[in-house]
Amino acid sequence: MPDASHPPSRQLDVAIVGGGLAGLYAIHRLRSIGLKVRAYEAGSGVGGTWFWNRYPGARCDVESLEYSYSFDDQLQQDWKWPERYGTQPEILKYINHVADRFDLRRDMQLNTRIKSAVFDGTANEWTLVTDGGEQIRARYCVMAAGNLSTPRVPDFKGLSGFKGKWYHSGLWPHEGVDFSGLRVGVIGTGSSGVQMIPLVAAQAKHLTVFQRTANFSLPARNGPMEPERERQHKAEYPARRRAAHDTPFAIAGYPKPTKSAIDALDEERDAAYEAKWQEGGSISYLYAYTDLLVNKASNDTASEFVRNKIRATVKDERTAELLAPKDHPIGTKRLCLDTNYYETYNRPNVSLVDVRSDPIEHITAAGLSLTSGAAFELDAIVFATGFDAMTGALREIDVRTSAGAVLRDHWEGGPLTYLGLMVAGFPNMFVVTGPGSPGVKTQMIASIEQHVDWIADAIDHLGKRQLDRIEPTPKAEIDWVHHVNQVADSTLYPLANSWYMGANIPGKPRVFMPYVGGFDRYKKRCDEVAAHGYEGFSLTRHATVDA
Ligand SMILES: Cc1cc2nc3c(=O)[nH]c(=O)nc-3n(C[C@H](O)[C@H](O)[C@H](O)COP(=O)(O)OP(=O)(O)OC[C@H]3O[C@@H](n4cnc5c(N)ncnc54)[C@H](O)[C@@H]3O)c2cc1C
Protein backbone atom coordinates (compact mmCIF):
# COMPACT_ATOMS: atom_id res chain seq x y z
CA MET A 1 0.00 0.00 0.00
CA PRO A 2 1.58 3.30 -1.03
CA ASP A 3 2.09 5.90 1.70
CA ALA A 4 -0.91 8.26 1.49
CA SER A 5 1.25 11.36 1.96
CA HIS A 6 3.37 10.40 -1.06
CA PRO A 7 0.93 8.73 -3.46
CA PRO A 8 3.32 8.00 -6.31
CA SER A 9 6.11 6.57 -4.20
CA ARG A 10 7.05 5.32 -0.78
CA GLN A 11 9.72 7.08 1.28
CA LEU A 12 11.79 4.85 3.52
CA ASP A 13 15.01 5.01 5.42
CA VAL A 14 15.99 1.59 4.11
CA ALA A 15 14.58 -0.52 1.29
CA ILE A 16 15.48 -4.19 1.59
CA VAL A 17 15.45 -6.51 -1.42
CA GLY A 18 14.66 -10.11 -0.43
CA GLY A 19 12.63 -11.86 2.24
CA GLY A 20 14.89 -14.77 3.13
CA LEU A 21 16.86 -15.18 6.33
CA ALA A 22 18.89 -12.05 5.48
CA GLY A 23 15.96 -9.80 4.57
CA LEU A 24 14.03 -10.81 7.69
CA TYR A 25 16.91 -10.18 10.04
CA ALA A 26 17.58 -6.86 8.30
CA ILE A 27 13.98 -5.75 9.01
CA HIS A 28 14.34 -6.66 12.66
CA ARG A 29 17.79 -5.18 13.22
CA LEU A 30 17.32 -1.94 11.28
CA ARG A 31 13.93 -1.34 12.85
CA SER A 32 15.55 -1.72 16.27
CA ILE A 33 17.60 1.43 15.64
CA GLY A 34 14.50 3.42 14.76
CA LEU A 35 14.63 3.21 10.97
CA LYS A 36 11.64 3.05 8.68
CA VAL A 37 12.24 -0.06 6.61
CA ARG A 38 10.40 -2.32 4.21
CA ALA A 39 11.47 -5.54 2.49
CA TYR A 40 10.35 -6.58 -0.98
CA GLU A 41 10.17 -10.26 -1.84
CA ALA A 42 9.45 -11.79 -5.24
CA GLY A 43 7.98 -14.97 -3.76
CA SER A 44 4.53 -15.35 -2.24
CA GLY A 45 5.98 -16.25 1.16
CA VAL A 46 8.98 -15.54 3.36
CA GLY A 47 11.98 -17.88 3.60
CA GLY A 48 14.03 -17.41 0.42
CA THR A 49 16.03 -20.59 -0.21
CA TRP A 50 13.68 -22.53 2.06
CA PHE A 51 10.57 -21.18 0.35
CA TRP A 52 11.75 -22.09 -3.15
CA ASN A 53 13.72 -25.34 -2.74
CA ARG A 54 10.98 -27.86 -1.93
CA TYR A 55 12.43 -30.83 -3.78
CA PRO A 56 12.35 -34.24 -2.05
CA GLY A 57 15.18 -34.56 0.46
CA ALA A 58 15.90 -30.81 0.71
CA ARG A 59 17.47 -30.10 4.08
CA CYS A 60 20.34 -28.12 5.53
CA ASP A 61 23.81 -29.63 5.64
CA VAL A 62 24.94 -27.69 8.68
CA GLU A 63 23.37 -29.05 11.88
CA SER A 64 20.16 -27.23 12.79
CA LEU A 65 21.33 -26.31 16.29
CA GLU A 66 23.97 -24.27 14.45
CA TYR A 67 22.01 -23.34 11.32
CA SER A 68 19.57 -21.01 13.06
CA TYR A 69 19.48 -17.40 14.22
CA SER A 70 21.49 -16.44 17.28
CA PHE A 71 20.24 -12.88 17.77
CA ASP A 72 17.63 -13.80 20.37
CA ASP A 73 18.56 -16.27 23.09
CA GLN A 74 14.97 -17.05 24.01
CA LEU A 75 14.25 -17.97 20.39
CA GLN A 76 17.14 -20.42 20.24
CA GLN A 77 16.17 -21.89 23.61
CA ASP A 78 12.51 -22.28 22.68
CA TRP A 79 12.81 -23.74 19.22
CA LYS A 80 12.94 -27.53 18.98
CA TRP A 81 14.57 -29.13 15.95
CA PRO A 82 13.23 -32.67 15.56
CA GLU A 83 16.27 -33.90 13.60
CA ARG A 84 20.01 -33.30 13.49
CA TYR A 85 19.61 -31.64 10.06
CA GLY A 86 16.29 -29.85 9.57
CA THR A 87 14.20 -30.64 6.50
CA GLN A 88 13.05 -27.85 4.21
CA PRO A 89 9.51 -27.87 5.72
CA GLU A 90 10.95 -27.64 9.25
CA ILE A 91 13.26 -24.77 8.34
CA LEU A 92 10.46 -22.93 6.56
CA LYS A 93 8.21 -23.42 9.61
CA TYR A 94 10.99 -21.93 11.78
CA ILE A 95 11.41 -18.92 9.48
CA ASN A 96 7.65 -18.28 9.50
CA HIS A 97 7.69 -18.53 13.27
CA VAL A 98 10.45 -15.89 13.41
CA ALA A 99 8.49 -13.63 11.05
CA ASP A 100 5.45 -13.84 13.36
CA ARG A 101 7.30 -13.77 16.67
CA PHE A 102 9.14 -10.55 15.79
CA ASP A 103 6.21 -9.06 13.88
CA LEU A 104 8.24 -8.75 10.70
CA ARG A 105 5.43 -9.18 8.18
CA ARG A 106 4.09 -5.66 8.66
CA ASP A 107 7.28 -4.34 7.01
CA MET A 108 7.38 -6.85 4.21
CA GLN A 109 5.75 -6.87 0.80
CA LEU A 110 5.43 -10.26 -0.92
CA ASN A 111 4.83 -11.02 -4.61
CA THR A 112 6.93 -8.00 -5.47
CA ARG A 113 10.06 -8.20 -7.62
CA ILE A 114 12.43 -5.25 -7.70
CA LYS A 115 13.30 -4.57 -11.33
CA SER A 116 15.56 -1.55 -10.98
CA ALA A 117 17.39 0.51 -8.39
CA VAL A 118 18.70 3.93 -9.33
CA PHE A 119 20.70 6.24 -7.08
CA ASP A 120 20.11 9.96 -7.51
CA GLY A 121 23.27 11.72 -6.35
CA THR A 122 21.56 15.08 -5.97
CA ALA A 123 18.61 13.90 -3.90
CA ASN A 124 20.92 11.38 -2.23
CA GLU A 125 18.39 8.59 -2.43
CA TRP A 126 17.69 5.31 -4.14
CA THR A 127 14.55 4.78 -6.20
CA LEU A 128 13.54 1.18 -6.59
CA VAL A 129 10.87 0.18 -9.08
CA THR A 130 8.82 -2.99 -8.65
CA ASP A 131 7.40 -5.27 -11.33
CA GLY A 132 4.02 -3.70 -10.53
CA GLY A 133 5.36 -0.21 -11.27
CA GLU A 134 5.48 0.96 -7.64
CA GLN A 135 8.31 3.36 -6.84
CA ILE A 136 10.11 3.21 -3.54
CA ARG A 137 12.41 5.99 -2.43
CA ALA A 138 14.90 5.21 0.29
CA ARG A 139 18.06 6.71 1.71
CA TYR A 140 19.71 3.28 1.91
CA CYS A 141 19.23 0.07 0.02
CA VAL A 142 20.11 -3.35 1.41
CA MET A 143 20.46 -6.10 -1.17
CA ALA A 144 19.50 -9.32 0.61
CA ALA A 145 18.66 -11.00 -2.68
CA GLY A 146 20.53 -14.25 -2.02
CA ASN A 147 23.52 -16.06 -3.46
CA LEU A 148 21.66 -19.14 -4.60
CA SER A 149 18.38 -17.57 -5.61
CA THR A 150 18.60 -17.41 -9.40
CA PRO A 151 17.86 -20.95 -10.63
CA ARG A 152 19.60 -21.88 -13.81
CA VAL A 153 18.01 -24.16 -16.41
CA PRO A 154 20.61 -24.98 -19.05
CA ASP A 155 19.84 -23.72 -22.50
CA PHE A 156 19.07 -27.12 -24.06
CA LYS A 157 17.56 -27.20 -27.50
CA GLY A 158 14.08 -28.68 -27.64
CA LEU A 159 12.96 -28.21 -24.02
CA SER A 160 9.76 -26.45 -25.07
CA GLY A 161 8.78 -29.48 -27.18
CA PHE A 162 9.21 -32.01 -24.34
CA LYS A 163 5.92 -33.91 -23.86
CA GLY A 164 6.56 -34.83 -20.22
CA LYS A 165 6.90 -32.49 -17.24
CA TRP A 166 10.10 -30.79 -16.18
CA TYR A 167 11.16 -29.19 -12.89
CA HIS A 168 14.03 -27.21 -11.40
CA SER A 169 15.09 -28.05 -7.85
CA GLY A 170 15.03 -24.37 -6.94
CA LEU A 171 11.51 -23.73 -8.28
CA TRP A 172 9.76 -26.81 -6.94
CA PRO A 173 5.92 -26.96 -7.12
CA HIS A 174 4.32 -26.33 -3.73
CA GLU A 175 1.97 -29.27 -4.11
CA GLY A 176 4.93 -31.66 -4.55
CA VAL A 177 5.54 -34.11 -7.36
CA ASP A 178 4.60 -37.77 -7.47
CA PHE A 179 7.10 -39.73 -9.56
CA SER A 180 5.43 -43.13 -8.97
CA GLY A 181 5.51 -45.29 -12.05
CA LEU A 182 7.45 -42.70 -14.08
CA ARG A 183 10.71 -42.82 -16.00
CA VAL A 184 12.59 -39.88 -14.51
CA GLY A 185 15.82 -38.18 -15.56
CA VAL A 186 17.75 -36.08 -13.03
CA ILE A 187 20.31 -33.77 -14.60
CA GLY A 188 22.97 -32.62 -12.13
CA THR A 189 24.72 -34.19 -9.17
CA GLY A 190 25.54 -31.22 -6.93
CA SER A 191 24.06 -30.81 -3.43
CA SER A 192 20.41 -30.76 -4.59
CA GLY A 193 20.83 -33.76 -6.89
CA VAL A 194 22.63 -35.74 -4.20
CA GLN A 195 19.83 -35.00 -1.71
CA MET A 196 16.93 -35.83 -4.02
CA ILE A 197 18.28 -38.81 -6.00
CA PRO A 198 17.73 -41.48 -3.26
CA LEU A 199 14.12 -40.30 -2.74
CA VAL A 200 13.25 -39.98 -6.41
CA ALA A 201 14.76 -43.45 -6.99
CA ALA A 202 12.55 -44.92 -4.28
CA GLN A 203 9.46 -43.64 -6.09
CA ALA A 204 10.20 -43.74 -9.80
CA LYS A 205 9.81 -46.71 -12.10
CA HIS A 206 13.27 -45.94 -13.41
CA LEU A 207 15.67 -43.13 -12.61
CA THR A 208 18.45 -42.11 -14.98
CA VAL A 209 21.00 -39.74 -13.50
CA PHE A 210 22.87 -37.59 -16.00
CA GLN A 211 26.20 -36.62 -14.45
CA ARG A 212 28.63 -34.10 -15.87
CA THR A 213 30.82 -33.72 -12.78
CA ALA A 214 31.14 -36.20 -9.96
CA ASN A 215 31.02 -34.49 -6.57
CA PHE A 216 32.31 -35.68 -3.26
CA SER A 217 29.59 -36.52 -0.78
CA LEU A 218 29.89 -37.56 2.84
CA PRO A 219 27.30 -39.30 4.99
CA ALA A 220 25.15 -36.85 6.94
CA ARG A 221 24.32 -39.41 9.65
CA ASN A 222 21.03 -37.65 10.11
CA GLY A 223 18.66 -38.87 12.78
CA PRO A 224 16.24 -37.70 15.45
CA MET A 225 17.62 -35.00 17.74
CA GLU A 226 19.13 -36.63 20.82
CA PRO A 227 17.57 -34.94 23.90
CA GLU A 228 20.84 -34.88 25.84
CA ARG A 229 22.74 -33.39 22.93
CA GLU A 230 20.06 -30.72 22.56
CA ARG A 231 20.04 -29.95 26.27
CA GLN A 232 23.80 -29.59 26.42
CA HIS A 233 23.99 -27.48 23.26
CA LYS A 234 21.29 -25.13 24.52
CA ALA A 235 22.99 -24.78 27.89
CA GLU A 236 26.13 -23.64 26.08
CA TYR A 237 24.42 -21.64 23.34
CA PRO A 238 25.74 -18.12 23.99
CA ALA A 239 29.31 -19.35 24.52
CA ARG A 240 29.13 -21.57 21.43
CA ARG A 241 27.86 -18.73 19.26
CA ARG A 242 30.69 -16.50 20.50
CA ALA A 243 33.24 -19.25 19.91
CA ALA A 244 31.90 -19.70 16.35
CA HIS A 245 33.08 -16.17 15.57
CA ASP A 246 36.63 -17.34 16.10
CA THR A 247 36.42 -20.14 13.56
CA PRO A 248 36.84 -20.11 9.77
CA PHE A 249 33.41 -21.62 8.99
CA ALA A 250 31.56 -19.81 11.82
CA ILE A 251 30.78 -23.12 13.49
CA ALA A 252 32.15 -24.01 16.90
CA GLY A 253 32.52 -27.37 18.58
CA TYR A 254 35.09 -29.04 16.34
CA PRO A 255 38.52 -29.58 17.81
CA LYS A 256 41.07 -27.49 15.97
CA PRO A 257 43.43 -29.72 13.97
CA THR A 258 47.09 -29.53 14.91
CA LYS A 259 48.83 -31.62 12.31
CA SER A 260 49.36 -31.85 8.56
CA ALA A 261 47.87 -34.92 6.88
CA ILE A 262 51.21 -35.84 5.36
CA ASP A 263 52.87 -35.90 8.78
CA ALA A 264 50.52 -38.67 9.91
CA LEU A 265 51.22 -42.38 9.41
CA ASP A 266 48.97 -44.15 6.90
CA GLU A 267 47.11 -46.17 9.54
CA GLU A 268 46.67 -43.13 11.79
CA ARG A 269 45.29 -41.10 8.90
CA ASP A 270 42.87 -43.80 7.81
CA ALA A 271 41.62 -44.14 11.38
CA ALA A 272 41.11 -40.37 11.61
CA TYR A 273 39.18 -40.21 8.32
CA GLU A 274 37.14 -43.26 9.29
CA ALA A 275 36.15 -41.64 12.59
CA LYS A 276 35.06 -38.47 10.75
CA TRP A 277 33.19 -40.54 8.16
CA GLN A 278 31.29 -42.32 10.93
CA GLU A 279 30.58 -39.04 12.75
CA GLY A 280 29.06 -37.46 9.61
CA GLY A 281 29.16 -33.87 8.42
CA SER A 282 31.53 -31.96 6.21
CA ILE A 283 33.21 -29.53 8.61
CA SER A 284 34.38 -32.35 10.81
CA TYR A 285 35.98 -34.13 7.85
CA LEU A 286 37.74 -31.04 6.50
CA TYR A 287 38.99 -30.33 10.03
CA ALA A 288 40.77 -33.70 10.24
CA TYR A 289 44.09 -32.01 9.46
CA THR A 290 45.39 -28.47 9.27
CA ASP A 291 46.12 -28.34 5.58
CA LEU A 292 43.47 -30.23 3.63
CA LEU A 293 42.43 -27.11 1.74
CA VAL A 294 45.90 -25.72 1.10
CA ASN A 295 48.18 -28.68 0.42
CA LYS A 296 47.45 -30.90 -2.57
CA ALA A 297 49.42 -33.88 -1.24
CA SER A 298 47.49 -33.73 2.03
CA ASN A 299 44.19 -33.29 0.26
CA ASP A 300 44.95 -36.30 -1.98
CA THR A 301 44.84 -38.53 1.09
CA ALA A 302 41.41 -37.24 2.14
CA SER A 303 40.07 -37.38 -1.44
CA GLU A 304 41.33 -40.93 -1.97
CA PHE A 305 39.76 -42.10 1.29
CA VAL A 306 36.33 -40.98 0.03
CA ARG A 307 36.93 -42.42 -3.45
CA ASN A 308 37.69 -45.77 -1.81
CA LYS A 309 34.46 -45.53 0.21
CA ILE A 310 32.56 -45.00 -3.05
CA ARG A 311 34.31 -48.01 -4.63
CA ALA A 312 33.46 -50.13 -1.58
CA THR A 313 29.78 -49.07 -1.67
CA VAL A 314 28.84 -49.10 -5.35
CA LYS A 315 28.77 -52.65 -6.70
CA ASP A 316 29.13 -51.91 -10.40
CA GLU A 317 32.78 -51.05 -10.94
CA ARG A 318 32.24 -48.72 -13.89
CA THR A 319 29.51 -46.78 -12.06
CA ALA A 320 31.73 -46.50 -8.99
CA GLU A 321 34.59 -45.07 -11.04
CA LEU A 322 32.24 -42.54 -12.67
CA LEU A 323 30.99 -41.47 -9.25
CA ALA A 324 34.49 -41.12 -7.77
CA PRO A 325 35.53 -37.49 -8.35
CA LYS A 326 38.98 -37.09 -9.86
CA ASP A 327 38.94 -33.59 -11.29
CA HIS A 328 39.00 -31.55 -8.10
CA PRO A 329 40.37 -31.84 -4.56
CA ILE A 330 37.80 -32.66 -1.89
CA GLY A 331 36.30 -29.53 -0.28
CA THR A 332 37.13 -27.19 -3.16
CA LYS A 333 33.57 -27.48 -4.47
CA ARG A 334 30.62 -27.38 -2.11
CA LEU A 335 30.96 -30.66 -0.24
CA CYS A 336 27.67 -32.59 -0.32
CA LEU A 337 26.10 -34.48 2.57
CA ASP A 338 23.84 -37.38 1.84
CA THR A 339 21.69 -40.19 3.12
CA ASN A 340 22.20 -43.32 0.99
CA TYR A 341 23.38 -41.49 -2.12
CA TYR A 342 26.02 -43.94 -3.29
CA GLU A 343 23.93 -46.94 -2.14
CA THR A 344 21.16 -45.77 -4.46
CA TYR A 345 23.25 -46.74 -7.50
CA ASN A 346 22.95 -50.40 -6.42
CA ARG A 347 19.21 -50.30 -7.04
CA PRO A 348 18.07 -52.12 -10.18
CA ASN A 349 15.94 -49.13 -11.24
CA VAL A 350 18.79 -46.58 -11.26
CA SER A 351 21.35 -45.94 -13.96
CA LEU A 352 24.11 -43.36 -14.28
CA VAL A 353 25.02 -41.71 -17.57
CA ASP A 354 28.25 -39.79 -18.05
CA VAL A 355 27.40 -36.61 -19.92
CA ARG A 356 30.94 -35.27 -19.63
CA SER A 357 32.20 -37.72 -22.28
CA ASP A 358 28.91 -37.75 -24.19
CA PRO A 359 27.07 -34.46 -23.59
CA ILE A 360 23.32 -33.94 -23.82
CA GLU A 361 22.63 -32.81 -27.36
CA HIS A 362 18.99 -31.89 -27.08
CA ILE A 363 15.73 -32.54 -25.33
CA THR A 364 13.35 -34.49 -27.53
CA ALA A 365 9.58 -34.79 -27.31
CA ALA A 366 10.04 -38.19 -25.67
CA GLY A 367 13.09 -37.55 -23.50
CA LEU A 368 16.60 -36.54 -24.42
CA SER A 369 19.44 -37.55 -26.67
CA LEU A 370 23.20 -37.37 -26.34
CA THR A 371 25.82 -36.27 -28.85
CA SER A 372 26.55 -39.91 -29.71
CA GLY A 373 22.91 -40.36 -30.69
CA ALA A 374 22.01 -42.42 -27.60
CA ALA A 375 18.39 -41.64 -26.68
CA PHE A 376 16.51 -41.88 -23.37
CA GLU A 377 12.75 -41.99 -23.00
CA LEU A 378 11.61 -39.97 -19.99
CA ASP A 379 8.27 -38.98 -18.49
CA ALA A 380 9.82 -36.28 -16.29
CA ILE A 381 13.08 -34.33 -16.25
CA VAL A 382 14.47 -32.72 -13.11
CA PHE A 383 17.09 -30.03 -13.46
CA ALA A 384 19.30 -30.06 -10.37
CA THR A 385 21.60 -27.72 -12.19
CA GLY A 386 22.05 -25.06 -9.57
CA PHE A 387 22.03 -21.30 -9.69
CA ASP A 388 23.65 -18.29 -11.24
CA ALA A 389 25.46 -18.04 -7.94
CA MET A 390 26.50 -14.99 -5.98
CA THR A 391 25.96 -12.34 -8.66
CA GLY A 392 22.86 -13.65 -10.47
CA ALA A 393 20.21 -11.93 -8.35
CA LEU A 394 21.97 -8.55 -8.38
CA ARG A 395 22.71 -8.67 -12.09
CA GLU A 396 19.00 -9.25 -12.75
CA ILE A 397 18.22 -5.89 -11.15
CA ASP A 398 19.08 -2.85 -13.22
CA VAL A 399 21.30 -1.10 -10.65
CA ARG A 400 22.68 2.26 -11.74
CA THR A 401 23.40 5.81 -10.55
CA SER A 402 22.72 9.29 -11.87
CA ALA A 403 26.49 9.64 -12.26
CA GLY A 404 26.35 7.00 -14.99
CA ALA A 405 27.61 3.95 -13.10
CA VAL A 406 25.92 0.67 -14.05
CA LEU A 407 26.46 -2.33 -11.78
CA ARG A 408 26.36 -4.88 -14.62
CA ASP A 409 29.14 -2.93 -16.39
CA HIS A 410 31.14 -2.41 -13.21
CA TRP A 411 31.06 -6.18 -12.70
CA GLU A 412 31.59 -7.16 -16.31
CA GLY A 413 35.00 -8.67 -15.62
CA GLY A 414 33.81 -10.22 -12.34
CA PRO A 415 32.29 -8.78 -9.18
CA LEU A 416 34.12 -5.96 -7.37
CA THR A 417 33.24 -5.10 -3.77
CA TYR A 418 34.89 -3.84 -0.63
CA LEU A 419 34.50 -6.47 2.11
CA GLY A 420 31.68 -7.96 0.07
CA LEU A 421 29.53 -5.28 1.69
CA MET A 422 29.56 -2.30 -0.67
CA VAL A 423 30.49 -1.38 -4.24
CA ALA A 424 32.55 1.70 -5.20
CA GLY A 425 30.44 4.22 -7.12
CA PHE A 426 27.16 2.92 -5.63
CA PRO A 427 26.69 4.93 -2.42
CA ASN A 428 24.39 3.75 0.36
CA MET A 429 23.85 0.33 -1.22
CA PHE A 430 24.80 -2.57 1.01
CA VAL A 431 25.04 -6.21 0.02
CA VAL A 432 24.48 -9.09 2.45
CA THR A 433 26.96 -11.97 2.01
CA GLY A 434 27.88 -10.76 -1.45
CA PRO A 435 30.88 -11.70 -3.56
CA GLY A 436 34.07 -10.86 -1.67
CA SER A 437 32.53 -11.91 1.64
CA PRO A 438 33.08 -15.34 3.23
CA GLY A 439 29.29 -15.89 3.46
CA VAL A 440 28.86 -18.96 1.26
CA LYS A 441 31.87 -20.64 2.85
CA THR A 442 30.39 -20.41 6.34
CA GLN A 443 27.33 -21.29 8.36
CA MET A 444 25.43 -18.66 6.44
CA ILE A 445 23.10 -17.44 9.15
CA ALA A 446 26.12 -16.42 11.23
CA SER A 447 27.45 -14.45 8.28
CA ILE A 448 24.06 -12.91 7.59
CA GLU A 449 23.79 -11.69 11.19
CA GLN A 450 27.36 -10.37 11.17
CA HIS A 451 26.82 -8.50 7.87
CA VAL A 452 23.47 -7.02 8.89
CA ASP A 453 24.84 -5.96 12.30
CA TRP A 454 27.76 -4.25 10.59
CA ILE A 455 25.40 -2.48 8.15
CA ALA A 456 23.09 -1.35 10.97
CA ASP A 457 26.05 -0.03 12.97
CA ALA A 458 27.35 1.84 9.91
CA ILE A 459 23.97 3.50 9.26
CA ASP A 460 23.67 4.35 12.95
CA HIS A 461 27.18 5.80 12.93
CA LEU A 462 26.30 8.04 10.00
CA GLY A 463 23.02 9.16 11.57
CA LYS A 464 24.63 10.10 14.86
CA ARG A 465 27.13 12.33 13.04
CA GLN A 466 24.57 13.95 10.72
CA LEU A 467 26.19 12.18 7.78
CA ASP A 468 24.10 10.53 5.13
CA ARG A 469 26.36 9.01 2.51
CA ILE A 470 28.79 6.11 2.62
CA GLU A 471 30.68 4.43 -0.18
CA PRO A 472 33.96 2.59 -0.50
CA THR A 473 36.89 4.30 -2.15
CA PRO A 474 37.91 2.74 -5.47
CA LYS A 475 41.31 1.97 -3.94
CA ALA A 476 39.82 0.10 -0.99
CA GLU A 477 37.71 -1.93 -3.40
CA ILE A 478 40.64 -2.83 -5.66
CA ASP A 479 42.83 -3.71 -2.69
CA TRP A 480 40.13 -5.95 -1.22
CA VAL A 481 39.48 -7.78 -4.51
CA HIS A 482 43.24 -8.28 -4.85
CA HIS A 483 43.39 -9.63 -1.30
CA VAL A 484 40.42 -12.00 -1.90
CA ASN A 485 42.21 -13.39 -4.95
CA GLN A 486 45.56 -13.65 -3.21
CA VAL A 487 43.99 -15.61 -0.37
CA ALA A 488 42.17 -17.90 -2.84
CA ASP A 489 45.42 -18.47 -4.75
CA SER A 490 47.13 -19.64 -1.59
CA THR A 491 44.53 -22.44 -1.29
CA LEU A 492 43.40 -25.34 -3.47
CA TYR A 493 40.01 -23.74 -4.25
CA PRO A 494 40.98 -22.37 -7.68
CA LEU A 495 41.79 -25.95 -8.80
CA ALA A 496 38.06 -26.70 -9.06
CA ASN A 497 35.67 -25.50 -11.74
CA SER A 498 33.01 -24.54 -9.27
CA TRP A 499 30.15 -22.08 -8.91
CA TYR A 500 32.47 -20.17 -6.59
CA MET A 501 34.25 -19.36 -9.88
CA GLY A 502 31.15 -18.89 -12.01
CA ALA A 503 32.14 -22.04 -13.90
CA ASN A 504 28.57 -23.41 -14.17
CA ILE A 505 27.38 -20.45 -16.23
CA PRO A 506 28.57 -20.24 -19.84
CA GLY A 507 30.26 -16.89 -20.53
CA LYS A 508 30.44 -15.82 -16.87
CA PRO A 509 33.88 -14.40 -15.97
CA ARG A 510 36.04 -16.91 -14.10
CA VAL A 511 36.81 -15.01 -10.93
CA PHE A 512 37.01 -16.55 -7.50
CA MET A 513 34.12 -14.84 -5.68
CA PRO A 514 34.04 -15.81 -1.99
CA TYR A 515 36.62 -14.70 0.55
CA VAL A 516 38.18 -17.94 1.83
CA GLY A 517 40.40 -16.43 4.52
CA GLY A 518 37.85 -17.53 7.12
CA PHE A 519 34.94 -15.93 8.96
CA ASP A 520 37.17 -15.21 11.97
CA ARG A 521 39.69 -13.14 10.00
CA TYR A 522 36.95 -11.44 8.02
CA LYS A 523 34.93 -10.41 11.06
CA LYS A 524 38.05 -9.05 12.73
CA ARG A 525 38.80 -7.01 9.64
CA CYS A 526 35.23 -5.62 9.47
CA ASP A 527 35.38 -4.71 13.16
CA GLU A 528 38.73 -2.96 12.72
CA VAL A 529 37.50 -1.04 9.69
CA ALA A 530 34.54 0.26 11.73
CA ALA A 531 36.69 1.00 14.79
CA HIS A 532 39.00 3.10 12.62
CA GLY A 533 36.18 5.36 11.46
CA TYR A 534 35.18 3.15 8.52
CA GLU A 535 38.59 2.93 6.96
CA GLY A 536 38.43 2.59 3.18
CA PHE A 537 34.99 4.21 3.05
CA SER A 538 34.17 7.80 2.32
CA LEU A 539 31.55 9.18 4.74
CA THR A 540 30.00 12.49 3.78
CA ARG A 541 27.00 14.75 4.25
CA HIS A 542 24.76 15.60 1.31
CA ALA A 543 21.49 17.47 0.91
CA THR A 544 19.01 15.64 3.08
CA VAL A 545 15.73 14.65 1.49
CA ASP A 546 12.48 15.46 3.27
CA ALA A 547 10.61 12.35 4.23
C1 LIG B 1 19.17 -26.34 -1.21
C2 LIG B 1 20.02 -25.42 -0.40
C3 LIG B 1 20.52 -25.84 0.82
C4 LIG B 1 21.29 -24.98 1.60
N1 LIG B 1 21.79 -25.43 2.79
C5 LIG B 1 22.54 -24.60 3.54
C6 LIG B 1 23.09 -25.04 4.79
O1 LIG B 1 22.90 -26.16 5.22
N2 LIG B 1 23.86 -24.18 5.49
C7 LIG B 1 24.12 -22.92 5.04
O2 LIG B 1 24.83 -22.19 5.73
N3 LIG B 1 23.60 -22.48 3.89
C8 LIG B 1 22.83 -23.28 3.13
N4 LIG B 1 22.34 -22.84 1.93
C9 LIG B 1 22.57 -21.45 1.52
C10 LIG B 1 21.31 -20.59 1.79
O3 LIG B 1 21.04 -19.93 0.60
C11 LIG B 1 21.56 -19.63 2.95
O4 LIG B 1 21.87 -20.37 4.10
C12 LIG B 1 20.41 -18.69 3.29
O5 LIG B 1 19.16 -19.30 3.23
C13 LIG B 1 20.47 -17.45 2.44
O6 LIG B 1 19.51 -16.53 2.89
P1 LIG B 1 19.37 -15.13 2.14
O7 LIG B 1 18.23 -14.44 2.76
O8 LIG B 1 20.68 -14.45 2.08
O9 LIG B 1 19.05 -15.51 0.62
P2 LIG B 1 17.83 -16.30 0.02
O10 LIG B 1 17.32 -17.30 0.96
O11 LIG B 1 18.26 -16.78 -1.32
O12 LIG B 1 16.70 -15.20 -0.15
C14 LIG B 1 16.79 -14.21 -1.10
C15 LIG B 1 15.39 -13.82 -1.50
O13 LIG B 1 15.48 -12.66 -2.33
C16 LIG B 1 14.46 -12.73 -3.28
N5 LIG B 1 14.85 -11.89 -4.41
C17 LIG B 1 15.93 -12.01 -5.22
N6 LIG B 1 15.93 -11.02 -6.13
C18 LIG B 1 14.83 -10.27 -5.87
C19 LIG B 1 14.28 -9.11 -6.48
N7 LIG B 1 14.86 -8.52 -7.53
N8 LIG B 1 13.14 -8.60 -5.97
C20 LIG B 1 12.52 -9.16 -4.89
N9 LIG B 1 12.99 -10.28 -4.30
C21 LIG B 1 14.13 -10.82 -4.79
C22 LIG B 1 14.38 -14.18 -3.66
O14 LIG B 1 13.12 -14.51 -4.16
C23 LIG B 1 14.68 -14.87 -2.33
O15 LIG B 1 13.49 -15.25 -1.70
C24 LIG B 1 21.58 -23.68 1.13
C25 LIG B 1 21.12 -23.28 -0.12
C26 LIG B 1 20.35 -24.13 -0.89
C27 LIG B 1 19.88 -23.67 -2.23
Brief rundown of the structure:
The protein is an alpha/beta fold and 547 residues long. The chain has helices spanning 21-32, 49-52, 73-78, 88-101, 191-203, 227-235, 237-244, 266-279, 282-286, 296-313, 317-323, 341-344, 392-395, 407-410, 444-464, 474-489, 519-531; strands at residues 9-17, 37-40, 108-109, 114-120, 125-130, 135-143, 165-168, 183-187, 206-211, 217-219, 336-338, 350-354, 360-363, 367-370, 375-377, 380-383, 398-401, 429-431, 469-472, 537-540. 48% of the residues are buried.
Descriptive report:
With 547 residues, the chain is of the alpha/beta class. 31% of the residues lie in helices and 17% in strands. Strands 1, 2, 3, 4, 5, 6, 17 and 18 form an eight-stranded mixed beta sheet that branches. Helix 1 (21-32) packs parallel to helix 15 (444-464), helix 10 (296-313) packs antiparallel against helix 11 and helix 15 (444-464) packs parallel to helix 17. The longest helix has 21 residues, at 444-464. Flavin-adenine dinucleotide (FAD) binds at residues 17-23, 40-43, 48-49, 51, 53, 58, 60-62, 67, 113-114, 144-149, 192, 393, 397, 432-433, 443-444, 448. Flavin-adenine dinucleotide binds at residues 17-23, 40-43, 48-49, 51, 53, 58, 60-62, 67, 113-114, 144-149, 192, 393, 397, 432-433, 443-444, 448.
